[in-house]
Amino acid sequence: MKFRLLSILLLVCWSLTAQAGEVEVRDAWVSLPPPGAEVVAAYMVVLNMEAQGHRLRRVSCDEASEAEFHAMRRHGNMMQMVHLEGVDLPAGERVVFAPGGMHIMLRGLRRTLKRGEDVHLHLFLEDGRRLDIAAPVRDMR
Fold first, then answer.
1. What are the boundaries of each domain within the chain?
2. Regarding predicted confidence, which is higher, 15 or 139?
3. pTM across the whole model
């Protein structure tokens, strides 16, 4: 059911697409941080429609001093956030960054983010390509 809903949402959300060759980012968004927070998460779907795999090596953000790939992993009966050095993009597949899973952590926000405005992210592939993304701020509540 969740997979079906995600597939439908992907088909509907074509407006926020960044592309480098046949690697695309769709439905990027940033969660609205609570007042005074300097840390926030970004989410998206990355599609690799090429015949070969790729790797996201790093990420940067115009509105934050630090940006890192993170994932949630179970450690015993607790969930723990772990830093990822990069993210593999298998050939012909999509990689989902979603709440409760893989995400981009933005630290040291340079300004207060407001619902509806864009946050500018830059994803760097191992082959030197760069994906520039304008991700709107959404209220998760």
1. 2-138
2. 139
3. 0.82
Two structure tokens written together for 116: 């509806």
Contacts of 115 (CB under 8 A, 6+ apart): 32, 137, 138, 139
Tell me: the pLDDT tens digits for 16-32?
455 556 999 999 999 99
Q: Quote the CA–CA distance of 31 and 40 in Å, as a whole number.
A: 6
Task: Give the span between the Cα atoms of 121 and 69, in whole angstroms.
Answer: 12
Classify residue 51 by burial, with Cβ atoms within 10 Å: 0-12, 13-18, 19+: exposed
Identity of the amino acid at 49: M
Residue with tokens 């012909």: 92
For 16, counting Cβ atoms within 10 Å of its Cβ (0-12 exposed, 13-18 middle, 19+ buried), the class is middle
137 to each of 40, 56, 66, how far by Cα in Å?
10, 22, 17
Task: Decide the pairing of beta strands 93-97 and 103-109.
Answer: unpaired
Thinking of the domain 2-138, which architecture would CATH place it in? Sandwich (2.60)
Please tell me the distance from the alpha carbon of residue 65 to that of residue 28, in angstroms, as a whole number. Answer: 19
| CA–CA distances in Å: residue 37 to residues 27, 44, 117 | 24, 21, 17
